[in-house]
Amino acid sequence: xxxxxxxxxxxxxxxxxxxxxxxxxxxxxxxxxxxxxxxxxxxxxxxxxxxxxxxxxxxxxxxxxxxxxxxxxxxxxxxxxxxxxxxxxxxxxxxxxxxxxxxxxxxxxxxxxxxxxxxxxxxxxxxxxxxxxxxxxxxxxxxxxxxxx
Amino acid sequence: xxxxxxxxxxxxxxxxxxxxxxxxxxxxxxxxxxxxxxxxxxxxxxxxxxxxxxxxxxxxxxxxxxxxxxxxxxxxxxxxxxxxxxxxxxxxxxxxxxxxxxxxxxxxxxxxxxxxxxxxxxxxxxxxxxxxxxxxxxxxxxxxxxxxx
DNA sequence: GTACATAATGCGATGCCTTCTCAATAGTGC
DNA sequence: GCACTATTGAGAAGGCATCGCATTATGTAC
Lengths: 149, 149
Fold this sequence. Notes:
Two copies of one chain form a homodimer.
Chain A: H1 4-13, H2 20-31, H3 40-49, H4 56-68, E1 72-75, E2 83-86, E3 95-99, E4 105-108, H5 111-123, E5 127-138, H6 140-144
Parallel strand pairs in A: 3-5
Antiparallel strand pairs in A: 1-2, 3-4
Helix pairs in contact in A: 3-4
The structure holds a DNA duplex (30 and 30 nucleotides).
């Protein structure tokens, strides 16, 4: 599990600082039930409710930073804005099946996908951060409905 | 290859119409070299240069519609806006490796991923439209640079 | 412990991609 | 050819995300 002290170490390596805001954000994601993901706005509201508000600018900046460090995954689901979740190795690592009509999102696991992703990145000399298989499809219920696309 | 007449048939099934604009957009994507993808804006400019301008509203509407029909793939690369390309089966089907620092995007093929995606969709009763493995990583050149994240 | 350099925060303004509204246009079936 | 209505085009509006800058505060050196 990625800890606050490993975050601190990694930040210091680059001459950056550990702030209470960064620590809080990391902890929120660590305590989130597996497979739950938050948008920047969700996180903003959640923190206000918890009585430790963090400005939206800071949230956006740190979500982006933590994604680029490989700590978080940036998900493009179907709602038109990004979602974030903690980035975990197998066997917690998972992927998403999305209905393009009702936006219903289902998780599924498949460890060989992560292996393939790692192999591809390695072959090209890339340092892997995240690897997501996103399936766009139409769910059974939407297939039955006559509603337009 | 998906043709104009199959587009027409599929539109008519739903009570929709084949317009010159839709025909033009489909043809542009069909004639694009494999692996090239366009943003809405790219397409808009391209059409103006070709002397058959189509309004941005219409472009956005039809790109979305054709993605939801499974004709186009909607790609989330790293530039902050969507890109589109024609959706092709194996062995043309491919995936993307993206450097989160310089946004360099590389394609790679792996037919077993499409098979897994199809199997997953089928198992859940979904009608598959598209399946993309997106790898976020840091390219060799950016690993060497000292530049911040 | 104190002081300093500068990274990070918060606020509001700004930007950009995308969607919406609505009158005008044009496919389709009869 | 006519009626019906899906579609288009133009501009306005919306929403997510980023930027600029004054203020705050972390980490380091003394």
